[in-house]
Structure formats: structure tokens, C-alpha cells
Design a protein that fits this description.
Length: 372
Amino acid sequence: MPGPELFDVLRREPDVEAPDLVAVDATDRLLLDEAAAALALAGPGEVAVVDDAYGALTLGAVALHAASDVRVSQDLLVGELALAANAERTGLAGSYRALPLAEVAIGARVVLVQAPKALDALREIAEAVAAGAAPDVTLLVGGRVKHMTHAMNDVLRASFDDVSATLARQKSRVLVARGPRPGTSSFPRRQEHADLGLTVCAHGAAFAGTKVDIGTRALLGGLERMPSAGTALDLGCGTGVLAAALARSRPELEVIAADQSAAAVASARATAEANGLGGRIRVVRDDAAASLPDASVDLVVLNPPFHVGASVVTTVADRLFAAAARVLRPGGELWTVYNSALRYKPVLSRLVGPTRLAEQTPKFTVTVSTRR
């Protein structure tokens, strides 16, 4: 399928759809254009793509530049699902392979990356590419100009000899790195939190890294007030702090930690192991607890995201509220924390059940919803 037609039919589903959210952006197009010469020289299995949002980079490399056996690593499961659906939609199924980040760049001569938000996420990608790619690899990292900083160049220079920037186009820019210097990965990172009695481990793309964000701390403050339960779910678990705190404080509790981020899942597993809880916490990667049966959980704790890219989109949290309602047994409780300005209480009451305030400050609100 030719390029313009390809891009016209790509969709974001199953991710959130909104008028200002697109499946193909200017950065995707610029990355493919800047990589054209390198892609022309790459053989089968020599092209890798990291964090392709919805498949434009992977499928564009195949359709526009005849790349074959493209290797792909995506942190977010919705990205994987969207790429698979778009590949089917465009007749390009089977043109790529999904691999973990640590393996995706092995032997690659061209690597295309949608720039992540966090510098540590970029650092882990750069380290993985430098460690496994061919000596003549070209790494191209694209992003919106307003989100790109000189610190990103510094991160790339820690793993590559030569780093340069292209001219901007349609408010996007590409950083180009060559001359890999293989080294040992610095991830996962770990940090002791003496006040919590926990060690937190984090891969680069995990939310908040090894820190404990204030929303999670607000939920931790309600730990002793949470009801007795046989099974608890840390939904959107991030680095697994809530799951670890629950498992440590309640030896009889079966704890599940779920997240769609591969980095979060790996971090939560590492956090569990670091705190001697590896056998107590089951960590799963899925989208909105899809792998859990209906009415199978007594307690859900949730610190939901409310951004998709740079947009505030409350439907992200709505999907998680609905997921919590589905997996909770009647009478089970959802404890959630959110920015007080978002006023989720009516939505929680509608999707889950009667909802009361557990704590409220000008910044954060903690609510308890009882499943009908």
C-alpha cells in the first residue's frame, strides 16, 4: 500500500480516540524521510523500531522503503495491539517481529525511535542499541521540538560517539547518533525509601522512576483503613509500590500487579524481588486488567493517569474505573487517588458504585467506591 494511502487508514484503536489525537504525526513522517538513505541499505532483520506509537514507523518502513523482517519493541501494550490491527488492515501482517527492548536492536543497522518523555527511558534505549546493534548502526530519535532538550543529546552521547540534529520540520526534529560504544545496562535502577521500608526498582520508562509520587503516597496513607481482602489488584501498578506495600502488610493477601507498560511490569517484578516479595506478587502485562476474570478481586488500588501525550483525556481513567468495576466482587472496594481538579467522584459512582471521600487536599483526592 503506497505511503499516503497507508497513513490514511491507520487507526489508534484500541487506544483512546479524540479529535486532537492522531495515529500518524509529523514526527513519524520526518523520521521516515530522514532514515530513507539508511533504510535503502538495510537488509532483512536490520531495521529496528522502538516505541512506534500506532505502527506508522514500522509499516511505513515496510511499505515506503521495502524493509523486511522489521524488529519492533513497544513499551505500551495498546501500541502493540494498534500496530497488529493496522498491519492486518493494510495487508502487512507478518512484516515485523515484536521483541523485548534488550533484544530488538541486535544486529540492527537502522533504528527508528519515537522519543520517550523521560530521559531515563531514552538512556535505556540508547544503551540497548549501543550494546546490540551493528557497528555501523544509525540511530534516529524523533520528537516534537517543544519536548526535545539538549539533555537528550547528552544522553545519546553517553552511548554514541557522534550525535547531531536535523533541521526542524512541522515542529518536529530528529537526533541522529552513530558510533555505538557498547556497555553494560544501568537498568533497572533502585532506591531505598527508609520512610516506607521499601526498595523501589525502575526501568527507564516506568512512571516516577525510583521515586514514590505523591499520589501513591496518598493511597499508602489509607492502607490501614482498606478492608480485609483475599485478593487485591494494583491496577496500573507502575513500579509496584502499592502492590509491595499491600503484600508486606498483609501476609495472607493474594496480590496482583497489572500494567500495560513493559517497563512498569519489569520494574514491579524487580521491586517485588528486592523486597523479598517475589513469591507474593503476581505481575501481569495487560490492558485494563483484561486478563483477570469478572468478579475475581476484593480490593483494587488505582493511581490513574490522566494524560495521553500532551492532552488531558479523562477517558483513560474512565476505562480503568470500568475495569475495576468489572473485576471487583460485589461489595469489593476501589481505592483511587486523583488530581482534585478532575472531580471524578460522579464518574466513579456511576461506573463502580457508591463513592465516598477518604481524604481530600487542594491537590489530591482519595475516594473509596463500593462495587454494587
